[in-house]
Design goal:
alpha+beta; 5-stranded antiparallel β-sheet
Length: 551
């Protein structure tokens, strides 16, 4: 048969196949809905105890969506405010981070100049009641829902505060809480501009451009560092617009491919760039995801700047929020995105799960692609940094001090006892402060099991099972005592590391989030390395070498 005739028949037959498949799927959907309705109705009529149909329905929907990817989720009416926070960076509430410990939700960090701060709420305050509703043993999400509401509405809190005998009553007026995309920016020594971008909500690109141009107009800049560490992403268009600040007009930044034609879209830079020459460095880590990866990946693909830090998360999926009936919504993964080199950075194939229903990342390199200057990059593994810096791992004792809120609680105690401290740049943990912290920890009866102790317990158990224990008991006793002696000195041996975290926590009590950032900059390994490269301070001109830029 003529090959053209075969092609014609294939093209003719394909729509029929598609139509047939769609018809079959529609039948299966109709059948499933019928079965589901009957199950729910019969349960309501016959189940021995009373049921909550709405609650069961929500559970069923969430279980179904769990089989897809973690970003496709059902949003009930009660969580609509959370969507606004994700997209707009704002919500109606009191303006505070909260956390759960000791059977209560506590104030963790009030935002400066918002209702919680204005009402005098402090880190460590336990929330006992909200508008007469007892909150003991309620989860963070449950308490969060009670705290949120329409701006202008009032709420009364009952608070238990360390060092206070009586329960405190606080009346607050909810406000529209707008979380800053950019909590801090500055010009570092040597003329390097630094901007930390926490999220990609509405106006992120506008705010970053304004910050950059302000610093540029007031200083002779030698380079720019954009900090995307810990930035989980947000609005795709904001990411494109941020790239456009440094990349010329009409450049393809990202394109999406989905199931339907309307999900296949190209996103180009629309405006003339503000600066195409300034040396640029992007800081990333394993928590930099989605829109952060579009920015860092595009900058890398265009060879417009260097990427410093650790491999990013690897989220190359795009979600749309779809309105549904009864004021509910569904966030649905509708496409994958591809950056200028035509690579997709999606790390995990959620259609492939192991037998125990787990998903894992792989270190196997994916397909090769090329940047504008011909540098090799890979798909499927997030964004690999041009300058890789191993993350600093916390010691076991530091991790336990943090997890058991020892550092948090001591900072609260310190704040109650000291009206003021030095500026964030100058404040240090003195020997006197650290000795006081050690005494506090000891009085709190802090306990933890070191990794060496865990391994020792396994060794003893194995020795007993294999019949060696009696023969080596003396040596094991010696080893156990040595481990104990070293552990007793952990607070002293890890003083420098613990002091750094303690310093940031204390600074936060007086200078809030901005103060924490300022306090951390001096000892920031990734930032210091980026600045070194941008300033060419080692004389090697690493920046041009990395990007393969000809002099």
């Amino acid at each position: 048969m003529n090959k053209f005739r075969l092609l014609f028949l294939a093209l003719l037959f394909f729509p029929l196949l598609s139509f047939s498949q769609e018809k079959q799927n529609n039948f299966e959907i109709s059948k499933s809905l019928d079965i589901y309705n009957n199950v729910l109705r019969y349960l309501n009529m016959n189940y021995v105890d009373e049921i909550n149909p709405a609650e069961l329905n929500e559970i069923a929907i969430k279980a179904m969506l769990k089989e897809l990817d973690p970003y496709t989720v059902f949003i009930p009416e009660s969580e609509i405010e959370d969507v606004r926070l994700l997209t707009m960076g704002e919500y109606g509430g009191i303006g505070s981070i909260i956390q759960y410990y000791d059977d209560n939700v506590h104030i963790s960090e009030p935002y400066e100049n918002f209702p919680a701060h204005k009402a005098g709420l402090l880190p460590g305050d336990a929330i006992l009641e909200i508008n007469g509703v007892n909150t003991e043993k309620k989860s963070v999400s449950e308490v969060s829902e009670l705290l949120k509401g329409q701006p202008g509405s009032k709420l009364t809190l009952k608070i238990r505060r360390d060092g206070e005998k009586d329960v405190l009553i606080k009346t607050l007026t909810r406000e529209k809480i707008k979380i800053d995309n950019i909590p801090y920016y500055t010009v570092l020594d040597g003329g390097i501009a630094y901007i930390i971008l926490n999220q990609f909500t509405k106006d992120a690109a506008k705010e970053l451009k304004e910050a950059f141009l302000k610093m540029k107009s007031e200083n002779e800049l030698k380079g720019l560092v954009i900090d995307l560490r810990g930035n989980g992403g947000g609005l795709l268009n904001e990411a494109v617009d941020i790239v456009n600040i440094f990349v010329p007009k009409n450049k393809l930044v990202v394109y999406t491919k989905g199931k339907t034609a309307d999900q296949n879209r190209n996103y180009y830079t629309k405006l003339e760039a503000e600066d195409t020459e300034i040396p640029l460095a992007i800081l990333v880590n394993e928590s930099s995801a989605s829109a952060s990866e579009i920015v860092s990946g595009s900058i890398q693909d265009f060879d417009r700047g260097i990427i410093v830090g650790q491999r990013t998360f690897g989220k190359g999926l795009v979600q749309n929020i779809l309105p549904m009936n009864y004021n509910t919504q569904m966030k649905v993964t509708v496409s994958k995105y591809y950056i200028p080199s035509m690579r997709c950075i999606q790390e995990i194939d959620y259609s492939k799960k192991s037998k125990n229903d787990t998903l894992t990342k792989t270190d196997t390199l994916g397909q090769e692609f090329r940047t504008a200057n011909g540098r090799i990059v890979y798909e499927g593994h997030g964004i690999q940094p041009d300058v890789k810096i191993e993350p600093e791992m916390l010691s076991t004792i530091t991790a336990h001090l943090y997890a058991q809120n020892m550092i948090f609680k001591y900072a609260n105690k310190f704040y109650r006892e000291h009206k003021s401290i030095a500026s964030p740049e100058e404040f240090v943990i003195t020997d006197e402060i650290y000795d006081d912290f050690v005494k506090f920890v000891e009085n709190e009866d802090f306990k933890y099991t070191s990794e060496s102790e865990k391994d020792f317990e396994v060794l003893v158990k194995t020795a007993k099972q294999e019949g060696y224990y009696d023969n080596i008991k003396e040596q094991l006793d010696i080893l156990e005592n040595e481990l104990k002696n070293h552990k007793d000195n952990d607070l002293i041996n890890n003083k420098k590391e613990i002091s750094e975290i303690l310093k940031m926590e204390i600074v936060g009590r007086y200078y809030f989030q901005k103060g924490k950032i300022i306090s951390s900059l001096k000892d920031d390994v990734e930032l210091n390395r980026a600045v070194e490269i941008l300033l060419n301070s080692n004389g090697k001109n690493e920046y041009k070498t990395i990007l393969k830029i000809d002099d």
